[in-house]
Amino acid sequence: MSQFHSAKLSSRAWILRAVALLCGIGSMSPAHLSAQEKSKSPPDGASAEWPQFLGPDRNGGSSETGLLDSWPAAGPREVWRAKGGVGMSGLAISRGRLITMVQRNGDQWVIALDAQTGKPVWQSDVAPEYRNAMGNGPRATPTIVGDRVFVFTGEGILAALRFADGKVLWSHDVLEERGNVAEYGMASSPLVVEGQVIVTAGGRRSTVVAYDAKAGNQIWSAGDDVAGYSSAALLDVGGRKQIVVFTGGSALGLTPGSGSVLWRYPYKTNFDCNIATPLAVNGNVFISSGENHGSVLLSLKPSGDKFEVGDVWSSQGPQSVLRSEWQTPILIDGHLYGMDNVGGAGPVTHLTCVNAATGERLWQQPRFGKGNLIAAEGKLFISTMKGELVLVRASPKGYDELGRAVVIGTTRQAPALAGGLLYLRDDKEIVCLDVRKR
Questions:
Q1: Is residue 256 part of a domain?
Q2: Full residue range of the structural domain in which residue 359 is found
Q3: Which residues partner with 250 through β-bridges?
Q4: Is residue 21 part of a domain?
Q5: Quick check: is 33 in a domain?
Q6: Within 13 A of 352's CA, how many CA atoms are on the CB side?
Q7: How many angstroms separate the CA atoms of 385 and 38, rounded?
Q8: Cβ neighbours around 55 below 10 Å, total
Q9: φ and ψ at 46, to 5 degrees?
């Protein structure tokens, strides 16, 4: 959600504590599965990877094919179900491992499970527990790059762990060093670009900070806004690669490597609740926010070594075509599919399709309900706060539901998809579902 909604930081001081033994992380494989089904493994390569927030390209999209076109009567086949823990951290999958963050036994933990079986591989505590009136535990999703895993805790501790065994290689209290706490907790999923780990900090002259991925030392900082809750993305916009960050008060374009500010577009919202990740749309930048704000598609015109920012289209206020609360919309074939939230974080949310080039609303499924979504093979895989997994055809012609099944408890997380297996979590469990065609 970033995924998120959190509240005030209780304490950011490190508390030394003995490592508590985690118990019961193990998996349950349904007894009725045959040995052949249990051993069925996803293909190797990029299709079996979901290594960071919103997937390989940080936009919720997957190139996978051969997926179900509808749900069986009993829903997608369950492969395994394992105990997880409290938190809003999403799921990252790479090289046969699933990694996420959970809170229990008084700490925030990074846990690694076997992605095929759900069996525990390792776990490491990285910070004391984080408590917040809007939800406890970590918010950000781990990022897996090479032999390292990068995590950002609810109170703003950035850590690098070894992929093989979870050993903590370095750790920084980012807010103590450079930033200010976001009221609802730190939700920026680390972005790794050119050997640098980038998160939002929200401090004066350090809205965004970058650390050396290997050594852990800070390299640069940029911006003067509050942090907000969005995760930065590397986008090809304005004719060049840029780090685009949606802070609590603006959208920023930064130069990879140095962090120099290329452009800034003010976008202030109530409670600094800019949460959705920016998207590239035909070389332009799309941002959207809830709390009755709206959406805008930004054009970037080169001006010397910087850019002039304009609006391709803008739709703001209670009549906006799309007000993304904590869900990042999905761009498919020139159309945006997203959750349009009514009012100030109210309970009414519509599933909406918008022409990305013009801002025209093409259709809306009223009162679909709060949820989150990813896409593959022209289909939307939508998780709802009721614990449902809904399959919808991604078509500008209208809403076409292909399947709906309750698979887990209340969740705000988007699913993760790797090798035909779909993963989802709540505050208690992690479930793996087989969504491949037979």
A1: yes
A2: 47-434
A3: 266
A4: no
A5: no
A6: 27
A7: 29
A8: 25
A9: -60, -30
